[in-house]
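## Example record

The block below lists the input lines for one assembly entry, exactly as stored, with component labels intact.
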Amino acid sequence: MKITQMTITKTLVRTTLMKAVAIVFAIGCGSTVSVIADEPEVSGDKTVLIKAEVIHTGTGEILRPGCVLIRDGKIVEIGESLSVEGVKVVEVKSLIPGLVDAASRIGAGRLDDERTDEITPDLASVSIVDWKDIDFLQQLSGGTTCVHLTPGTSNVVAGLTSAVKTAGTIDRRIVAERTGLAISVCSDPASGNNARSRPDSIYIRQPTNRMGVVWMLRNAFHATQNDKFASPAMKDVTAGTLPVFAVSRTQHDIQALMTLADEFSFHPTLIGGQECWKVTDEIAERKMSVILQRVIPGSSRGDERTRISADMAARLNKSGATFCLSGGDLLDQMRFAVRFGLPAESALASITASPAAILKIDDRVGSIVVGKDADLVAMTGDPLEFSTAIQWVMVDGAIQFEQAGN
Amino acid sequence: MKIQVPLISRPWKIAVVLLLAGSTTAIAQDRLALRGATIIPIVGERIVGGTILISDGRIEAVGKDIEIPVEAKVIDATGRFIMPGMINVHSAAGMSQANEQNANVPFLSVVDSIDPIADFFEESRRNGVTTAAVVPGNSTMIGGRAAIVKTAGSYVNDMLVKRDAGIKISLAPTTGTSRMSHFARLRRELLKAQKPEEETSIEKPAEEVKPEGEPAEAPKPEGGETPETPGATPAPSAQAETEKATREALVSLLKGEMPAIIYCETSMDVSQALALVDEFKLKPILVLGRDCYKAAKLVADRKLPVVLDSTMVYWRTDPITRKEEKIVLPKIFSDAGASYVFQVADSGTSLGTHYYWYQATTAVRYGMSADAALKALTFDSAKLLGIDDSVGSIETGKDADLVILSGEPLSVSTWVETTIVGGKVVYQKSEDAELRLLFNPEEDTN
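Predicted structure tokens for the full assembly:
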């Protein structure tokens, strides 16, 4: 064992027709791979029984103690005590579902901002994913097993979002290729633009203010209604078959979004929502889901100079709105939300079941329920405490990250 | 309905500080008793339902069966936890500008730059930090003298625990300077201070400069007139004055009157720092940048406690193997057998690293015991700064710097309810207007 560094093992399990073949890689492998001799416990076995002192299922239910039986990467049985003959048994302190990050821009090498055109509804975030990006590993090590990739906010209609796993074989990593359309109802598309500049500059474009952003969106929707050659994604949005994820932070942008939604009959999910405490009732009334963006605890200001309330998650929870947390370090974000007033019993759902439901991928991820993917996080104690560590993270039944020394 | 609250502005803050200070002086002269709490003295076992008796700003008695004098003011802390005030060992946030542009300014003192109403001190009290070492930043070669202050007071002089608490030395070269020349220059400055005075002063002899008085002042009639060409004298004498002050400060460093607070940017700086320590017999306090983790064994072997970087967990890609590693500083240093204390980030960019207590939870997450983490926040930090005779634990005779917590320390829902410095209540959560506004922005009339 090396003393100066943590050893990370990454396991990729590929289930072929009959046999599960375990391939153990050193992380970041690429082509230079050092094979680690002793294989992590769980991987490679088709059937594994996990016994935990506590299981938080993510839906608010707690099993104390609890058992989860996993077969072929899926959860097949759950109970307080299960006894299955001849399977590998893994014992842990506490078990939670793999975390779901509902708004993330990882894995794209920060190259997901479109600047040449304001309306690019058919660009797909999933098409540029670097599956071996270190971002995925970092998120995985923090317990996140599924991320919602949203394109950048530099143009008005940014493109298609997708949900992917943070680890596993590439053919299994795409959970949903087309979860929705990302639009930016905020000042981001207007910032940096110029009406006059060098003729070949990509920054000569509209909009240069917020009005322009709204105007462009309205145009895009009108064009879709009137043009049979309109973008397929925009058509799906107006037909109500493709959800809209709108990045809006300030109160007036959130209200502009609501106006647009009424005008063109779509039901957007809010990403950001820094100032949604000003319109909590309206959000609850409209049943608008909110994906809160990460803010710095103890700060009174968020992105775009928004005024934030420290107990935003708690307020949304109280109002009955569907909401979740996003933007990395999900466990610590949840803990700060609890510290700032979010009831403990609703906390875990805000980073597991709730984001999965918002993204409509809850048939596969977000909770420990029979039939769902075996995406699990083993922890050393109460997940709500800052001092609790992650022991290992499992994706599709294989341990993909293990914290040495725990 | 909106509730109107008074406007919070800077003058108002001063008023609050003065008010608190004023209203509590009376209590300090009297006795104060904290009753009913679980006391975590750091040295020794926890006392459940114990009493702390304070008189004249110091702890008079701690224990279970302490008789509370009738004249004592009593704070009932039943169900609460009391621990010693935490000690921030290294921060430039309490001063107005962390780094000096001149590379060699050991004569400067942070005392002249400390703003008692800086947000830093308010934030410290809010989070249970009662003592802070204000240290010049990491970018100046010899950056000036650090001072240790209490985090409450209206004037710097009220706050001072130790005026000359060390000289800050940085081994990180400034932009445009190579590591070699930075280190060579640092060594040259120390060597210069080591030599007797005559050899070093190439300029005017020392007697030309008056020891205390203002050199620019017209000379008093002493015997004959000494006509001086105006403009020619002030420049060299000011320079000589600076050199003298530099020399004095470095001589006191070399005599061991002050520790050398040495910032190491990379692990190679650590061995350089140790070489300096040996050559000049310095009393070191090592402040390690996050990439210094490869020198963990080095400091462990020397039994030198160190100050860890505020970023304690991060990922790096090995430049050769391209293998990605998760670097966990507390674990690496613990495994190497080194002892360490924490520091906080000046401003929050990551989630919790600007909270001192949060840093301790990170260490606990990676294997440190909760007791050891609390000790690092208090006693170990006091010891590192050499002020453990007066602060860092709850013991008879020590300063009454105490924090009343709503629950078990380091737990997610535990808040600082009351902070006491020198026997005076300097913070109460129930009266914290800024904290209230963080949760009730609709009440903000600004």
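The longest strand of chain B covers residues 160-170. Chain B touches chain A at residues 293-294, 296-297, 315, 317, 321-328, 331-332, 335-336, 348-352, 354-355, 358, 361-362, 364-367, 370, 410-413, 437-442, 444 (CB under 8 Å).
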